[in-house]
Amino acid sequence: MKVLVVGNGGREHALAWKLLQSEAIQQVFCVPGNGGTAVMQRCQNLPLRVDDFEGMARFASENDISLVVVGPELPLSRGITDYLRSQHIPVFGPTKAGAQIEASKAWAKALMQEAKMPTAKAVVFADASSAKAYVKAQGAPIVIKADGLAAGKGVTVAQTVAEAQAAIEEVFNSSFGIVVIEECLTGEEVSVLALTDGVTIRPLLPAQDHKRIGEGDTGPNTGGMGAYAPAPLVTPQLMARIEQEVLQNAIAHLQKRKIDYRGVLYAGLMITPQGEPKVLEFNCRFGDPETQAILPLLETPLEELMLACVEQRLDKMPPICWKQGACVSVVMASGGYPGDYEKGKVITGIEPAEAKGAIVFHAGTQLRQNQILTDGGRVLGVTAVAANFEQAIAQAYAGVDCIEFEGKYYRRDIGWRIKG
């Protein structure tokens, strides 16, 4: 079968890489793809935009595409699934109605409250003055969230009232017209991604991301600077609670709203010091960089799971099979990220890194004149699978040490919670 993967990040490279490991997959096409997907065997980039639904539908129909896999949240929130389904093209990813669970934090919070999920107390505001008055009354620390898609960077955990009010100003001075203000929860964050056909839920391995730019989890939020799986924090008992209280609960309440949700349901959770899971947010797609740490451990063919979701027969699938061991992915970023950064820097050392056992997933790269160049803030995800976390961390950083590009930046403490 032939599969079309929508997106150009590290997540999409990992999806294409995992799909191509299956004997059932003849070829993968990526829209628009990146420098990594450009050089993979049996993989071809297509010069289409992720919002060119008509162009993708035409290509899928003319080239016998069996499945479209949507990576990023933007095309999902704009209705790519609805459009492709109307053209009778199988697509893995929720409809526009389902994607609201990520596209609107206010909508998602209302769903959580309706479902009586464990989550932070929150209030929604449509004007800056009321929001600022609320923050002044509540005090800090407090969490400010822009109500919309912000590529993983629309959240400010404000330590002072002044910082919170500045974040509110920023929200209303940008294209966001609503702000969600939440109590600040403490504990450890964890990502639990689940596959669903709208009825049945199959959780993947729990992962932990490192969202902040600086070591020791300091500095501003990013799209994610590294991840590992399976997160030891999530015991089988805790996973059972998350599955029932959060994931199944969410699907049940989506059904109540007549939303047929097929794809990935991603719960971003805070595990409190008392071991209680609290929902921070939902996403409507695979996480990035969590996907790069989860998929290398997956043994069940990915396309079989995706097709079971699309065809609503996930309950008939045997349990998901996983490799033993641990996976760690370290993000190499452009200097200046998550602020301003330069593009077009030559990347060297990827082959030596892979020779040392690393899997190098491309994120912000492009292939130009047989050279791989930087083309984004997060450039590469240098990944390793080993028998334990200590070995996986060492192997990933051995790969990082091989790779050079001007202004490269990476955190040296990915996995510090495990090592600590």
UniProtKB/TrEMBL annotation:
A GO term, aspect molecular function: phosphoribosylamine-glycine ligase activity
Cofactors named for this entry: Mn(2+); Mg(2+)
What is any one GO biological process for this UniProt entry?
purine nucleobase biosynthetic process
Work out whether the entry's keyword set contains Nucleus: no
Pfam family membership, one: GARS_N
Q: In which pathway does it act?
A: Purine metabolism; IMP biosynthesis via de novo pathway; N(1)-(5-phospho-D-ribosyl)glycinamide from 5-phospho-alpha-D-ribose 1-diphosphate: step 2/2
**InterPro entries (UniProt xref):** ATP-grasp (IPR011761), ATP_grasp_subdomain_1 (IPR013815), PreATP-grasp_dom_sf (IPR016185), PRibGlycinamid_synth_ATP-grasp (IPR020561), PRibGlycinamide_synth (IPR000115), PRibGlycinamide_synth_C-dom (IPR020560), PRibGlycinamide_synth_C_sf (IPR037123), PRibGlycinamide_synth_CS (IPR020559)
Report the EC code(s) recorded for this entry.
Answer: 6.3.4.13
Classification via Gene3D superfamilies? 3.40.50.20, ATP-grasp fold, A domain (3.30.1490.20), ATP-grasp fold, B domain (3.30.470.20), Phosphoribosylglycinamide synthetase, C-terminal domain (3.90.600.10)
Where in this chain does the record put each ATP-grasp domain? 109-311
Q: Catalyses which reaction? A: 5-phospho-beta-D-ribosylamine + glycine + ATP = N(1)-(5-phospho-beta-D-ribosyl)glycinamide + ADP + phosphate + H(+)
Which keywords does UniProt give here? ATP-binding, Ligase, Manganese, Metal-binding, Nucleotide-binding, Purine biosynthesis
Q: Has UniProt tagged this entry with the keyword Protein transport?
A: no
Taxonomically, the superkingdom here is Bacteria
Query: What family is it from?
Result: Belongs to the GARS family.
Q: What is this protein called?
A: Phosphoribosylamine--glycine ligase
| Biological source species | Microseira wollei NIES-4236
